[in-house]
Design brief:
1 helix; five-stranded mixed sheet; Immunoglobulin-like; three-stranded antiparallel sheet; mainly beta; 123 residues
Length: 123
């Protein structure tokens, strides 16, 4: 039981926070969860007239989920939240990509998330 608290504590202290004025940043909560996991993804996008959408992807070796949210250029809200439900066990790369008016990726931010199965519980 103490091992679990140590691992969670180490992950929380290792979290990096992206500073202001980055084109896009991402925060995922929780960073470590038990399957089936519901994760909340919060993105921050610096408003720009070229911004048309933001694509959020959660991908592991065996699972993929994505969502695309339309943006209204420099009138879009800076923060967007969404939830991915029932993620199965795996190590996930969660990314947020800002898509420009020509369909090109203007900026990308990544964060790692771990979803543990029943075999991942330390005894």
């Amino acid at each position: 039981m103490n091992t679990r608290y140590v691992v969670v504590g180490m992950m929380l202290t290792a979290t990096t926070v992206t500073g202001a004025k980055q084109p896009v940043s991402i925060r995922v909560s929780p960073e470590i969860a038990f399957a089936p996991a519901n994760v909340v993804i919060r993105t921050s996008v610096e408003p720009a007239t070229e911004n048309r959408s933001i694509e959020v992807i959660a991908e592991s070796g065996e699972f993929y989920r994505s969502s695309t949210i339309q943006l209204e250029g420099d009138r879009a809200p800076k923060t967007t939240m969404l939830e991915f439900r029932a993620l199965p066990p795996g190590n996930y790369d969660v990314s947020a990509s800002v898509i420009g008016s020509g369909g090109q990726r203007r900026a990308v931010a990544h964060m790692q998330v771990k979803v543990l199965g029943s075999e991942g519980i330390p005894e």
